Every structure is written in structure tokens, then in C-alpha cells.
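Please fill in the sequence for the structure shown.

STRUCTURE ENCODING:
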């Protein structure tokens, strides 16, 4: 069973490789464009990515002073909620204090 599945996987991978090779050959011969056009396009995309990354970093820097205290407050509230739940179970007699690891 495993051998047939492996064989099918190899056939599928071989077909995909054939498709990739055909596409590369088509781009090399049939496009009629030299590689400088592709290089220019890639450079433009790299510049655009740098601009987006810079904008993202600036926005994150702007929001970090606001978000960090909120995240810390949320952690404190979660701890308080967990402590209150533990106290509730202790008061109801369902759990003894010895069962909690403090």
C-alpha cells in the first residue's frame, strides 16, 4: 500500500517538475523580453516592500506605548480572575488549599 502511494507521489512530483521546466523554457524563448525588464520589476517590488515595512514599523512604534500597558493590564486582570475562581472553589469546599500549587 505504501509503495503504491509513494509511486503516485513520485508521478505527481515528476509531472509538476515537467510543468515547471516547460514554463521556464517558455519564458526563456517565447517572451521576447530581456531579463532587464524582470530585474526592473523586481527592484520596484523590493522598493515597495521596503516602504510598506517602514510604514508598518512606524505604526507599530506609535502603537506600542499604548498597547503594552493594555496587554499588561489584561494579564493582571486574568491573574485576578484566576485567583477569584480558585477562592470560589475553596469557599464552596470543592477543593482544599493544599491542592493548589502557589
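FILLED IN BY: designer on duty
SEQUENCE:
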Amino acid at each position: 500500500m505504501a509503495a503504491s502511494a509513494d509511486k503516485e507521489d513520485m508521478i505527481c512530483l515528476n509531472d509538476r517538475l515537467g510543468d515547471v521546466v516547460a514554463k521556464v523554457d517558455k519564458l526563456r524563448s517565447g517572451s521576447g523580453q530581456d531579463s532587464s525588464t524582470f530585474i526592473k520589476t523586481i527592484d520596484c517590488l523590493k522598493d515597495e516592500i521596503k516602504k510598506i515595512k517602514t510604514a508598518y514599523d512606524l505604526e507599530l512604534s506609535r502603537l506600542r506605548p499604548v498597547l503594552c500597558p493594555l496587554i499588561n493590564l489584561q494579564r493582571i486582570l486574568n491573574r485576578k480572575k484566576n485567583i477569584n475562581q480558585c477562592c470560589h472553589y475553596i469557599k464552596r469546599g470543592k477543593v482544599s488549599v493544599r491542592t493548589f500549587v502557589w
